[in-house]
């Protein structure tokens, strides 16, 4: 049997559904716990919680769609079932997936995406990509508690220092990602810059015109606006 | 809801720890273990059903290469992102991935909509909602994408599909950077310089991320200690 047929048989879809079920249960459980906490001890009304959820949904649309676009390469190269098992819940970025697949293929002397990639390459990929990604989930299982303790020690309970840590570490991370994209050029620098400026503008505008609901849309508008501006400037 | 104009009031410590953190760690631990075990299933089933297995030497070689790429990120990412998304956010992000392009932006928007600073108990609970929503939306999106097999995206004009592929991720990253820059404008430019210089020098990403995070953090700490500067809301 052709390996691409095997790679799209029900066994792999079922594996994907098992992983997704665990991931969805985890997310749903945390979601319920957090919303109850907000309602009981934070004094948040249901419409305020709905507003937070709406903001997250709007923000998720763009990146999820982008993920689906890039995912098509994986569907063509391997199979829809493989894509579902790997991308539904369990790993994440398609870029990481492609790097891991290439590494697995090299391990068995093949090249991913070339005709030489066969059932042995696929078998190696299935082991290597899944096993290497257990590193993150096992790391989270065993070390998440320590992360909180480390941060508390660092800030010694000072709320202002805690805010310094939160904002500077976030800015550090996103400065790296933004600078990486700027360095690639080819219009990406325009996308970064216009995304940043539009985001700042819409968040400020929401405060100026006293319309907090605009913040739910701010990041979504900024990311699509930045994409369009970069495209228009480069075409 | 807390707003910038009101004095920020965090969640009380006792119920946060007992009613929120304890179940988060319990369920987070076991779901992470279960998902790790579930990830071993495909290889096992491929062998049991079809009798296909790759040679161990090849697997170990591939695994060695993959871990060289993954290990630094696996250590650095949770340490760097934890102040924003907290405990539940870490469990979800490390099982579902797509942290920088999807989980963190959703967490940040949820906090912005609520007007709550990151690094607080309330901020962590709200980030948890944002990330949980992104996981649920992601699963639905990926399932639809896998089932439709390209039909949906094929309906887009080529220019739009190309613009999405090339420019959407940089625009997302720029937008989130802009949002955090608003919280602490004084750190924004230095953060870009701290991250940009090693990038121009051609350092590896897994060296640059800690340099960018801890470099900006040290700058923030120095400004806080010497000049008393802290982000608004903090």
Q: Which characteristics define this entry?
A:
heterodimer; A: 235 residues; mainly alpha; B: 234 residues; disordered N terminus
Concise structural overview:
The complex is a heterodimer of chains A (235) and B (234). By secondary structure, chain A is mainly alpha-helical.
The pLDDT mean of chain B sits at 86
Give the radius of gyration of chain B.
21 Å
Main β-sheet of chain B: number of strands, strand sense, barrel status?
A: none
Structural class of chain B: mainly alpha
The class by helix and strand makeup of chain A works out as mainly alpha
| Span of the ends, CA to CA of chain A | 46 Å
Tell me, briefly, the overall form of chain B.
globular
Largest interface here, residues on each chain? A-B, 167 and 171 residues
Mean pLDDT of chain A: 86
| Count of alpha and pi helical runs of chain A | 9
Number of strands of chain A: 0
In sequence order, what are the helices and strands of chain B, one letter per element? HHHHHHHHH
Can you characterise this structure?
The complex is a heterodimer of chains A (235) and B (234). Chain A has helices at 3-6, 10-41, 46-77, 80-87, 94-107, 119-155, 159-184, 188-208, 214-234. Chain A is mainly α and 235 residues long. In chain A, helix 3 (46-77) runs parallel beside helix 9 (214-234). Chain B is mainly α and 234 residues long. Chain B is 81% helix and 0% strand. Mean pLDDT of chain B is 86; it is low at 1-5.
Write the layout of secondary structure elements.
The complex is a heterodimer of chains A (235) and B (234).
Chain A: H1 3-6, H2 10-41, H3 46-77, H4 80-87, H5 94-107, H6 119-155, H7 159-184, H8 188-208, H9 214-234
Helix pairs in contact in A: 2-4, 3-4, 3-9, 5-6, 7-8, 8-9
Chain B: H1 13-38, H2 41-50, H3 56-96, H4 99-114, H5 121-148, H6 151-154, H7 158-183, H8 185-200, H9 205-227
């Amino acid at each position: 049997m052709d390996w691409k047929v095997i790679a799209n048989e029900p066994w792999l879809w079922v594996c994907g559904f098992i992983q997704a079920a665990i991931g969805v249960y985890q997310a749903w459980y945390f979601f319920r716990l957090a919303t109850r906490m907000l309602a009981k001890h934070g004094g948040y009304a249901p419409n305020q919680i709905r507003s937070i959820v709406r903001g997250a949904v709007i923000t998720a649309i763009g990146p999820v769609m982008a993920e689906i676009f890039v995912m098509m390469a994986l569907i063509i190269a391997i199979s829809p079932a493989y894509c579902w098992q790997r991308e539904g819940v369990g790993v994440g970025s398609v870029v990481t997936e492609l790097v891991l697949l290439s590494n697995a293929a090299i391990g068995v002397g093949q090249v991913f995406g070339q005709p030489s990639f066969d059932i042995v390459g696929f078998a190696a990929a299935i082991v290597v990509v899944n096993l290497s990604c257990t590193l993150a989930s096992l790391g989270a299982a065993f070390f998440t508690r320590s992360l909180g303790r480390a941060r508390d020690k660092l800030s010694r309970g000072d709320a202002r220092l805690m805010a310094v840590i939160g904002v500077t570490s976030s800015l550090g991370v996103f400065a790296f990602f933004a600078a990486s994209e700027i360095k690639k050029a080819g219009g990406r620098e325009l996308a970064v810059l216009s995304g940043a400026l539009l985001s700042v503008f819409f968040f400020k505008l929401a405060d100026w015109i006293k319309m907090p609901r605009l913040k739910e849309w701010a990041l979504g508008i900024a990311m699509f606006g930045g994409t369009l501006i970069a495209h228009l400037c480069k075409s | 809801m807390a707003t910038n104009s009101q004095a920020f009031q965090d969640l009380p410590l006792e119920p946060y720890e007992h009613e929120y953190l304890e179940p988060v760690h319990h369920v987070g631990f076991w779901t992470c273990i279960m998902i790790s075990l579930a990830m071993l299933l495909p290889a096992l089933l491929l062998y049991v059903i079809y009798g296909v297995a790759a040679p161990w030497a090849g697997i170990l070689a591939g695994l060695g290469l993959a871990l060289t790429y993954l290990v630094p990120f696996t250590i650095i990412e949770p340490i760097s992102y934890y102040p924003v998304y907290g405990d539940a956010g870490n469990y979800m992000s490390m099982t579902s991935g797509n942290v920088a392009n999807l989980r963190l932006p959703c967490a940040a928007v949820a906090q912005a909509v609520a007007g709550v600073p990151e690094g607080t108990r309330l901020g962590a609970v709200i980030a948890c909602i944002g990330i949980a929503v992104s996981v649920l939306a992601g699963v639905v999106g990926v399932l639809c994408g896998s089932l439709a097999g390209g039909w949906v995206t094929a309906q887009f004009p080529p220019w739009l599909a190309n613009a999405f592929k090339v420019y959407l991720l940089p625009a997302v990253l720029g937008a989130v950077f802009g949002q955090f820059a608003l919280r602490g404008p004084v750190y924004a430019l230095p953060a870009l310089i701290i991250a940009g210089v090693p990038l121009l020098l051609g350092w590896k990403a897994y060296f640059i991320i800690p340099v960018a995070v801890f470099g900006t953090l040290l700058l923030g700490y120095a400004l806080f200690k010497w000049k008393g500067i802290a982000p608004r809301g903090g």
